[in-house]
């Protein structure tokens, strides 16, 4: 049997235990990816083990805030925990959105532990052609 070791896994686990779980006043950071796809920006957050009702998404002006809470699994008296590496508590991420994004039409989907936000680019920020009018007469500047 092959075993893959990660020398930093134990260090990460120890640091998480020392810092404790995230709280509402001091949440842990959640990993994310952000990219542009056509006429919208897509932001994906990893939130495995979090139920959809434990996720809170807010937009105030151009500040997007995502908060989520991973709660412990209900345990009975006859359960003895042997290993606990999955972090519990509150996770949060704030993103400053550009003025060129349409914050009124953000779409959110949650599937397989991934929260995906789609933020459309505002119409005023999209490239457009400017037509040129042809004048009929010449103007002279006299002075």
In N-to-C order, the SSE pattern is HEEEEEEEE
**Beta strand %:** 25-35%
Q: What is the averaged pLDDT score?
A: 80
Alpha carbon gyration radius: 25 Å
Task: Describe the structure concisely.
The protein is mainly beta.
Key terms:
rod-shaped; four-stranded antiparallel beta sheet; 8 strands; mainly beta; 143 residues
Notes on the structure:
It is a single chain. The protein contains one helix and eight strands. It has one helix at 9-19; strands spanning 28-29, 32-37, 40-46, 55-60, 63-70, 89-96, 107-111, 114-120. Strands 1-6-5-4 form a four-stranded mixed β-sheet, with no helix packed on it. The protein has a four-stranded antiparallel β-sheet with strand order 2-3-8-7, with no helix packed on it. The longest helix has 11 residues, at 9-19. The radius of gyration is 25 Å and the shape is rod-shaped. The termini are far apart. The model has no long low-confidence stretch (mean pLDDT 80).
Topology:
Blueprint: H1 9-19, E1 28-29, E2 32-37, E3 40-46, E4 55-60, E5 63-70, E6 89-96, E7 107-111, E8 114-120
């Amino acid at each position: 049997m092959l075993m893959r070791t990660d020398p930093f896994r134990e260090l990460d686990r120890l640091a998480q235990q020392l810092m404790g779980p995230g709280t509402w006043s001091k949440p842990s950071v959640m990993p994310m990816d952000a990219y542009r796809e056509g006429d919208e920006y897509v932001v994906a957050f990893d939130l495995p083990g979090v139920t959809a009702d434990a996720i809170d998404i807010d937009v105030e002006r151009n500040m997007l805030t995502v908060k989520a809470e991973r709660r412990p699994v209900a345990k009975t008296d006859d359960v003895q925990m042997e290993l606990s590496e999955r972090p519990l508590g509150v996770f949060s991420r704030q993103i400053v959105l550009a003025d060129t994004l349409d914050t009124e039409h953000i779409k959110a989907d949650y599937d397989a532990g991934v929260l995906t936000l789609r933020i459309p680019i505002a119409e005023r920020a999209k490239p457009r052609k400017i037509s040129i009018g042809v004048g009929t007469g010449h103007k002279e500047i006299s002075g």
